[in-house]
Amino acid sequence: MSAPATPISHVSDTARWVAMYRAMESDRPDALFHDRWARQLAGPQGEAILRHLPKARRTSWPMIVRTQVMDELILRAIREDGVDTVLNLAAGLDTRPYRLPLPKSLRWIEADFDDVLNYKKGVLAQEQPNCALELAPVDLTDAAARTQLFARLAASSRHTFVIAEGLLVYLQSDQVARLAADLAAQPSFQFWLIDLSSPELLKRLNKVWGKSMEQTPLIFGPAEGTEFFEPHGWREKEFRSMFMEALRLKRTMRFAWLYVFLGRLAPEERRAQLRRMSGIVLLERR
Fold first, then answer.
1. DSSP structure class, residue 10
2. How many Cβ atoms are within 10 Å of 82's Cβ, its own excluded?
3. In Å, how far are 149, 166, 216, 265 from 155, measured between CA atoms?
4. Which terminus of the chain, N or C, has less C-beta within 10 A?
């Protein structure tokens, strides 16, 4: 039997891939953030993914930008919006409870598969989170299990900030719609932070990574953008263009200057499309 094209066989494996990007950024002298646990969490499988996935190292910049921008938005919401609870859906190998300057009183819940949470718990066993961290084993595609979890958390919080980083792109549209409605059903769930891609971008990514990610294809990229969420209880509060944020943070793709130049020559409608090709979105309850 031949070896797989890439060590990604389940969506949870992508957490090791993203952890490797955090490790790469942390090694830089001008690092935007420091995650001293990222390389250990990624492990040999994370290294293997970077070796085998086509153009993996060259496409690190959006993951780095996404991490940094989400860090900024999370900290701002805690500081300015009275957030007392953070619910991180499909938390994977995220280490924000350990590396961000969070209030001790903040309640942070990580929801993911039991084996993912147990693995991370083992690696970080000797570390102390900066907030009140809780682990919530759950299969988020199990509607009954997730609604039970949401109801339990909502009953004991006033202002909950939900994160879904790198999750929605692997779901079908109807799954995203049901998840959105389940979150909106909880009055204390006031903000929802996501990343969102356009159909055009997904087509490009699947062309590059399609064969290597047959078990975890990139699916969700609604043509209507953030308007997709409005019938399900959410509206756009803030959109951060991935490309524009990359320019701000100086973590751009190769030949970014050429894209900037060509963009200036494009009609305004096309420039708007390009700005919204990929982004970090803060949603609020309608």
1. S
2. 11
3. 10, 27, 34, 52
4. N
CA distance 282 to 260: 25
Q: How many CA atoms lie within 13 A of 231 on its CB side?
A: 8
Residues across the chain: 286
pTM greater than the 0.85 cutoff: yes
Residue 239, strand partner residues: 281
Highest mean pLDDT among 46-55, 83-92, 248-257: 83-92
Q: What is the DSSP letter of 265?
A: H
**DSSP per residue, 192-231:** EEEEEE-HHHHHHHHHHHTTTTTTS------TTGGGGGGG
pLDDT of residue 4 exceeding 50: no
Q: Is 110 helix (H, G, I), strand (E, B) or coil?
A: strand
Domains, the chain, ordered by start: 11-285 (3.40.50.150)
Q: Which residue has the higher pLDDT, 4 or 130?
A: 130
Which of these, 74, 64, 67, 69, lies nearest to 102 by C-alpha position?
74
The stretch 163-178 carries a mean pLDDT of 97
171 in Cβ contact with 219 (< 8 Å):
yes
Q: Which residues, in sequence order, are CB contacts of 19 under 8 Å at separation 6+? A: 35, 38, 39, 41, 42, 46, 92, 93
Q: What are the angstrom distances between the C-alpha of 106 and each of 80, 86, 94, 97, 248? A: 14, 8, 17, 10, 29
- pLDDT tens digits for range 248-271: 999 987 766 667 767 777 788 887
CB–CB of 146/179 below 8 Å? yes
Long-range contacts of 253-260 (CB under 8 A, 24+ apart): 253/58, 253/59, 253/61, 254/58
- H or E element: which one contains 170? none
What average pLDDT is seen over the chain? Answer: 93
- Please state the rounded mean pLDDT for residues 210-219: 85
